[in-house]
What we know:
The protein contains 6 helices and 9 strands. α3 runs parallel beside α4 (about 180-195). It starts with 9 loop residues before the first strand and ends with a helix. Strands 5-6-7-8-9 form a 5-stranded mixed beta sheet. The chain has a 4-stranded antiparallel beta sheet with strand order 1-2-4-3, with no helix packed on it. By secondary structure, the protein is of the alpha+beta class. It has 2 domains: about 10-75; about 85-220, Sulfite Reductase Hemoprotein, domain 1 (2-Layer Sandwich), CATH 3.30.413.10. The chain has helices at about 30-45, 65-75, 105-115, 180-195, 200-210, 210-220, and strands at about 10, 20, 50, 55-60, 85-90, 125-130, 145-150, 155-160, 170-175.
Amino acid sequence: MIQESARTGIVQKDKETVALIPEIKFGMMTPDDLEKIAAVSRKYEIPVIKITSAQRIALVGVKPEHVEAIWEELGMEPGHGLGTGLNYIKACPGEAVCRLGQRDSLGMAERIYDVVKPMGIESKIKFGVSGCPLACGEGIIRDIGIFGKKSTGWTIQIGGNSGLNARLGEVLAKDLDDDQLIDVVTKLMTYYKENMKAKERMYRFVPRMGGVEAIRQALGLE
């Protein structure tokens, strides 16, 4: 029986092959990354190459005996495709290239990643970061959603979910500059880690803790 993990892959419907998901932070890739993915896909006859909702590329239909060789040839780390922890940070292009971008969503996503990843929080966490209120990062249906305005700064929303228990996120704080946003994210994730139940998603955590208002008070944001 195939043991699922980020490195060994996600077992597919046929029970004989797996999907590998290389870590591609915020959907950003280099020509070298693309060439390596194309090369291993041809060499190991990977039948399906799929863009995921997490802005990554899934290599689907990999034979288990090829897994380690593929990782070695890719030279990339496995993405967090299942289980608990920082699942992904989805980010729009922001002011880097988008004509509507008002804030540096990609730069902010990098800063959030560097803060949250080392915390080792034992629940699945999804972020959506957007550089304008159009919110192409889909933060309102993520555990933590963030969007920016040029004139007033960042807004952070919490408790969204896109699954069977769909829920829109609620505003925790707004009008934050870059450093203030990182401070709020750090406080929130620390509070979450210290008070969450095992594998408890943010959309369940928020109402259990008394709602956004109670969390705002606990974080000293009043």
